[in-house]
């Protein structure tokens, strides 16, 4: 089985991001480039990281009217991402158009409820029922829209996997015992997420901010 860990390269400097990815390359299955990286380095930065030969996950969390999101998806064809994110709360038509505009080789997955939010945060946005209900509801919408899968926390992935057997599930908010949670509120271990059905394990700071990122990546790998 290939390594399910995607390293989140949330670093402001392109050279530092390249150096880090190059150091841990043998111990991860891909790299995730998010808003911080893409806003700072754009297409050029993605091409630079792609030279390392790892699959690229573009975590752009697109969320706009369907026509705009479809245009953005077309604009990133050239980058050949393995995975791209949109927000499920953008609605069914937006997700359908995003998937239709994506390259054949790109998995389009919908962010359900950010792992930095708990039930109280969700309620403050006007949504009642808690994380489990919200994730299940948006997973159903994403599947109906023809997406490949969703992003959710490890606390919900088991339930979603039982409902959507062939879905592709991206799980961030992962920590080994002893790692600080930081701003993440719905956290599990990489092993628990994998055992519950995660397809991709997204890990950032526990590796990127470790004193020894290679040792940290090996420590994660050893638990899987
Ligand atoms: O719900 C979500 C969606 C995306 N993310 C992203 O994953 C990484 C997690 O980084 P850590 O340093 O391991 O906390 C980060 O790039 C987020 O933008 C998420 O955390 N939660």
From TrEMBL:
GO BP, sorted A to Z: 'de novo' pyrimidine nucleobase biosynthetic process; 'de novo' UMP biosynthetic process
GO molecular function: orotidine-5'-phosphate decarboxylase activity
Binding site for substrate: 10, 32, 59-68, 115, 175, 184, 204-205
Entry keyword set: Decarboxylase, Lyase, Pyrimidine biosynthesis
UniProt-listed Enzyme Commission number(s): 4.1.1.23
Gene3D superfamilies: Aldolase class I
Domain of life: Bacteria
Domain Orotidine 5'-phosphate decarboxylase: 4-220
CDD domains: OMP_decarboxylase_like
Pathway listed: Pyrimidine metabolism; UMP biosynthesis via de novo pathway; UMP from orotate: step 2/2
InterPro entries from the UniProt entry: Aldolase_TIM, OMPdecase, OMPdecase_AS, OMPdecase_bac, OMPdeCOase_dom, RibuloseP-bd_barrel
Catalytic residues (UniProt): 59 (for ompdecase activity), 61 (proton donor), 61 (for ompdecase activity), 64 (for ompdecase activity)
Reactions it catalyzes: orotidine 5'-phosphate + H(+) = UMP + CO2
Enzymatic class: lyase
One Gene Ontology cellular component annotation held by this UniProt entry: cytosol
Pfam families recorded: OMPdecase
Function (record text): Catalyzes the decarboxylation of orotidine 5'-monophosphate (OMP) to uridine 5'-monophosphate (UMP).
Subunit structure: Homodimer.
Family that this chain belongs to: Belongs to the OMP decarboxylase family. Type 1 subfamily.
Stated name of the protein: Orotidine 5'-phosphate decarboxylase
Organism of this sequence: Pelagerythrobacter aerophilus
Phylogenetic lineage: Bacteria, Pseudomonadati, Pseudomonadota, Alphaproteobacteria, Sphingomonadales
């Amino acid at each position: 089985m290939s390594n399910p860990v995607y390293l989140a390269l949330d670093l402001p400097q392109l050279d530092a991001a390249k150096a880090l990815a190059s150091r841990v390359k043998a111990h991860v299955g891909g790299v995730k480039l998010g808003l911080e990286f893409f806003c700072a380095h754009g297409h050029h930065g993605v091409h630079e990281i792609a030279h390392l030969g790892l699959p690229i996950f573009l975590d752009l969390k697109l969320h706009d009217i369907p026509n705009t999101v479809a245009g953005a998806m077309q604009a990133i064809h050239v980058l050949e991402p393995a995975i791209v994110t949109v927000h499920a709360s953008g609605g069914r038509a937006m997700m359908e158009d995003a998937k239709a505009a994506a390259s054949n080789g790109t998995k389009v997955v919908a962010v359900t409820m950010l792992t930095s939010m708990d039930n109280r945060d969700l309620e403050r946005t006007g949504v009642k029922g808690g994380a489990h209900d919200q994730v299940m509801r948006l997973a159903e919408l994403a599947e109906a829209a023809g997406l490949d899968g969703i992003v959710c926390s490890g606390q919900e992935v088991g339930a979603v996997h039982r409902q959507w057997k062939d879905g592709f599930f991206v799980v961030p908010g992962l920590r080994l015992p002893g790692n600080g949670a930081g701003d993440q509120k719905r956290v599990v271990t990489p092993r628990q997420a994998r055992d519950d059905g995660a397809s991709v394990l997204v890990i950032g700071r526990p590796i990127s901010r470790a004193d020894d990122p290679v040792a940290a990546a090996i420590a994660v790998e050893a638990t899987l």
